[in-house]
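Input C-alpha cells:
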C-alpha cells in the first residue's frame, strides 16, 4: 500500500502556474495587441522579413512571448505565419523552439549580458549559419539594460547582418534605447490590455478549471492588474489558493485586506452629512483591519475620482471601477464637481505629504477633517460671484475693478495651474453657491418680523446700510467696499479659503 502511494505521488503531474500554462502559442492567442499581430502576420505572408525588430510596451503585455512566436514562425517547416503548428502535430523546428532546445533561436537576458564582451561574442556567432531552420534568431530581452559601449558595438551588426540573421529586441523602457538602434529596427508598441479583455480570459480559465467566480471578483482582479496579463494570472492564482473553488468579492476583501465599496460609500456619506465622529470612526476601523495608510488614501482618491466622472456623465464601468448604480446617491447629490475636485486635491496633497511627515496618520486624519466639511467649502470663483452679487444687493455701482479679475486671483489661479476666468462659471441645477444662499436670506428678510434678539447680524447690517448714501465717494475704486467684507463675514456658514 505504501509503495502504491509513493508511485501515485511520483506519477502526479507537477503544478503549473496559470501564467505558464496559458501562455499564447500563436499570434491569434495574443490578447489585446491586434495591430502588432496583423502587421507581423502580413509581413510573414508577403515574405518581407526585417533584420531587426524592437518590441516595446508595459510589462505583461506579451512582448517576449510575441518574440518567441515570431522566431518559431520564421523557422516553421510548414511556412505558417504563426498559425496552428502546435501540439503533437507540430513540426520538429516548432517543437524544439517551444521547448527552448533549438540552437537557431538564442534568447539572451540584456540585464545580465550587457557588456561589450557579450556583444562581441554575438558578433562572432552570427558568422555561422543556422543548423536546422531558415533563420538564426537572437532574442534580447530588456535590451535597454545594455551599456552604451555594448550598443555601439552592436550597431554595425544590426545594420548589415548576414541574410539569415534576425534580431528581436524587447524592452519596457523605450526611451533608454539609443536613437541609432531604433532607426535600424522595425518598432512595435504593445499596449495595455483592457479590463474587459482580461476579465473574459479569466472567465474562460475558470470555466475550464471548474471554478465558480463572481463577475465582480474577476473584474476586481482585472482592474488591479493594470493592463498586465501576467499580473492578472499571478493575482488569480493567489485568489484561487484561498477561495476553495469559489471566488467571491467578500472573501477577497477579507483575506487581502481591501477596502470595499460599502465602506467607501459610508465614509462619503459621513462627510456629506458633516458627521466628523463617524468619519473618524470609519477611518480607525479601516486602519485597524490592516489596511495601510497609503492604500487607504489611494482608494479614497479613486473613489472621489469615480464620483467626479459620474458627475460629468461618465458611466463606463472600466473607468469607474464599479457599476454606476453601486455608488452612494447621497454623496452624488451633495457634492458637485467643484467640491469633488477639491477633495481630490486634499487627498493627493496628503499622499505627497505623508512621505516626510512626523506621523502619516496625523496627515490622514487632518485630510479626513477637511473632507468632513467639504460640502461647505467655497471656491474662489464662487466667492468672487458672491462679492459681486452682494455689491448689487447693497445698491452700489458695478465698478470696472470688479469686472476684471484682481491680480492676486490671477496669480493664485496661475499657481494652481487653472486658467484665469473673467466670467462666472456655469453651474448645474444641483450646485449650491454662497450667492444663492445669500439671495434667499435677503428675500426672506422682509418677512422676518421677530425681535432684535431673533434678528441675525446680517439683517441688522443690511438695515444700517440702507440708510447710507448709495455711493461713497471716499471708497477706493480698486478695492472691495468695507461693508461688503462685513456682510460676507457675517453670513452664517461662510468658509473662505
Amino acid at each position: 500500500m505504501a509503495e502504491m502511494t509513493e508511485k501515485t505521488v511520483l506519477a502526479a503531474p507537477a503544478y503549473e502556474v496559470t501564467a505558464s500554462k496559458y501562455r499564447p502559442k500563436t499570434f491569434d492567442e495574443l490578447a489585446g495587441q491586434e495591430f502588432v499581430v496583423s502587421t507581423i502576420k502580413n509581413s510573414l505572408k508577403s515574405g518581407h522579413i526585417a533584420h531587426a525588430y524592437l518590441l516595446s510596451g508595459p510589462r505583461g503585455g506579451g512582448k517576449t512571448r510575441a518574440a518567441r512566436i515570431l522566431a518559431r514562425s520564421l523557422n516553421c517547416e510548414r511556412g505558417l505565419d504563426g498559425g496552428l503548428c502546435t501540439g503533437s502535430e507540430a513540426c520538429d523546428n516548432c517543437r524544439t523552439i517551444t521547448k527552448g532546445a533549438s540552437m537557431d533561436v538564442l534568447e539572451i537576458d540584456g540585464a545580465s549580458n550587457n557588456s561589450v564582451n557579450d556583444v562581441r561574442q554575438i558578433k562572432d556567432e552570427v558568422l555561422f549559419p543556422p543548423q536546422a531552420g531558415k533563420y538564426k534568431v537572437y532574442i534580447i530581452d530588456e535590451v535597454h539594460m545594455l551599456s552604451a559601449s555594448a550598443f555601439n558595438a552592436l550597431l554595425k551588426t544590426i545594420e548589415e547582418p548576414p541574410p539569415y540573421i534576425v534580431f528581436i529586441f524587447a524592452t519596457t523602457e523605450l526611451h533608454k534605447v539609443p536613437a541609432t538602434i531604433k532607426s535600424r529596427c522595425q518598432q512595435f508598441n504593445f499596449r495595455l490590455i483592457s479590463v474587459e479583455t482580461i476579465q473574459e480570459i479569466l472567465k474562460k480559465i475558470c470555466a475550464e478549471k471548474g471554478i465558480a467566480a463572481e463577475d465582480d471578483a474577476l473584474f476586481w482582479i482585472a482592474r488591479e492588474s493594470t493592463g498586465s496579463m501576467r499580473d492578472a494570472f499571478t493575482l488569480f492564482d493567489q485568489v484561487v489558493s484561498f477561495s476553495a473553488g469559489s471566488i467571491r468579492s467578500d472573501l477577497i476583501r477579507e483575506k487581502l485586506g481591501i477596502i470595499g465599496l460599502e465602506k467607501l460609500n459610508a465614509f462619503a456619506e459621513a462627510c456629506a452629512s458633516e458627521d466628523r465622529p463617524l468619519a473618524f470612526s470609519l477611518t480607525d476601523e479601516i486602519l485597524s483591519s490592516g489596511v495601510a495608510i497609503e492604500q487607504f488614501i489611494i482608494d479614497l482618491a479613486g473613489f472621489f475620482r469615480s464620483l467626479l466622472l459620474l458627475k460629468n456623465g461618465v458611466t463606463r464601468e472600466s473607468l469607474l471601477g464599479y457599476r454606476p448604480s453601486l455608488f452612494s446617491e447621497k454623496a452624488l447629490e451633495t457634492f458637485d464637481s467643484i467640491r469633488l475636485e477639491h477633495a481630490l486635491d486634499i487627498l493627493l496633497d496628503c499622499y505627497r505629504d505623508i512621505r516626510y511627515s512626523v506621523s502619516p496618520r496625523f496627515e490622514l486624519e487632518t485630510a479626513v477633517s477637511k473632507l468632513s466639511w467639504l460640502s461647505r467649502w467655497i471656491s474662489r470663483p464662487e466667492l468672487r460671484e458672491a462679492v459681486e452679487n452682494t455689491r448689487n444687493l447693497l445698491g452700489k455701482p458695478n465698478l470696472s475693478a470688479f469686472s476684471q479679475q484682481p491680480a492676486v486671483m490671477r496669480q493664485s489661479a496661475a499657481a494652481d495651474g487653472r486658467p484665469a476666468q473673467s466670467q462666472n462659471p456655469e453651474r448645474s441645477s444641483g450646485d449650491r453657491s454662497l450667492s444663492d444662499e445669500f439671495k434667499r436670506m435677503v428675500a426672506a428678510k422682509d418677512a422676518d418680523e421677530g425681535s432684535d434678539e431673533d434678528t441675525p447680524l446680517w439683517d441688522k447690517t443690511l438695515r444700517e446700510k440702507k440708510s447710507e448714501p448709495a455711493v461713497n465717494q471716499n471708497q477706493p475704486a480698486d478695492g472691495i467696499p468695507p461693508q461688503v467684507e462685513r456682510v460676507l463675514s457675517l453670513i452664517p456658514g461662510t468658509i473662505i479659503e
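Residues 292 and 322 are 22 Å apart (CA to CA). The chain has 25 helices and seven strands.
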